[in-house]
Write a structure and sequence with these properties.
The protein has strands spanning 3-9, 24-34, 40-50, 58-64, 66-68, 74-76, 79-86, 89-90, 93-97, 101-107, 116-126, 130-132, 136-141, 152-160, 170-175, 186-191, 194-199. With 209 residues, the chain is mainly beta. It has one domain (3-199): Immunoglobulin-like (Sandwich), CATH 2.60.40. The chain is globular, with a radius of gyration of 17 Å. The relative contact order is 0.31.
Length: 209
């Protein structure tokens, strides 16, 4: 019986900070839908507290598109950004190439974001993210990325497979801590057709789920 395994990289570090009006991500939710062709449709709902420090005209999100295998071979994944909303309204965005991927800038250079709470919804499609092995298939995925310069209060992810695979054939696990850490400060569960994750502590700036 072939097993599908989920492995989310949940990089987490504990950092004390004042929770009153600090600029931060209040909640980071990722909805990941694996399509029948193996591509993934991802919707990220990011609720931020903007104070005009790093979040001035908007936010940016880095997406790696070049990876290296354990054998040292490089490969490139497909990435198609589908659009973004802020507080329920379509928001401007543009992209910029990076050394190992793409940076999406969200916002208008001529318009500042009001201080306070804002909700961004980013949608994109990517492929070549699944690993297919003799005894299992695997999704290894970094939910939030590690490029945020401020804390993330809450972070979670939900994965949906294209078919209702029984939970008995699924495994879900992940890691917490800085890159390459094997710490596991998270909770996960498998359900028929997918899995759910959430970090059990705040993520500090530069860390991610």
């Amino acid at each position: 019986m072939k097993v599908f395994r989920f492995l989310l990289v949940v990089t987490l570090a504990l950092l004390a900070f004042d929770t009153r009006a600090d600029e931060r991500i209040l909640d980071y939710q990722s909805d990941i839908r694996v399509e029948t062709d193996g591509a993934m449709l991802v919707t990220e709902t990011i609720t931020v507290q903007a104070e005009g420090n790093q979040i001035k005209r908007g936010i940016y999100r880095d997406f790696p598109t070049t990876y290296r295998t354990q054998l040292g071979h490089h490969y490139v994944v497909d990435f198609d950004f589908l659009g973004v909303e802020r507080d329920g309204q379509t928001e401007d965005w543009h992209s910029e190439g990076r050394s190992n991927g793409i940076r999406i800038y969200v916002g208008n250079k001529d318009r500042y974001v009001d201080r306070g709470e804002h909700r961004y919804v980013l949608r994109y499609r990517t492929s070549r993210q699944l690993g297919f092995f003799e005894d299992h298939d695997e999704l290894y995925w970094n939910v939030t990325g590690n490029g945020w310069g401020f804390p993330i209060d809450q972070s979670s992810a939900e994965i949906h497979l294209p078919e209702s695979v029984p939970a008995s054939q699924l495994k879900a696990f992940g890691y917490t801590g800085r890159q390459d850490s094997l710490e596991a400060a998270l909770e996960s569960e498998v359900v028929d057709g997918g899995a759910r994750y959430h970090a059990t502590r705040r993520l500090s700036g530069g860390e991610g789920l």
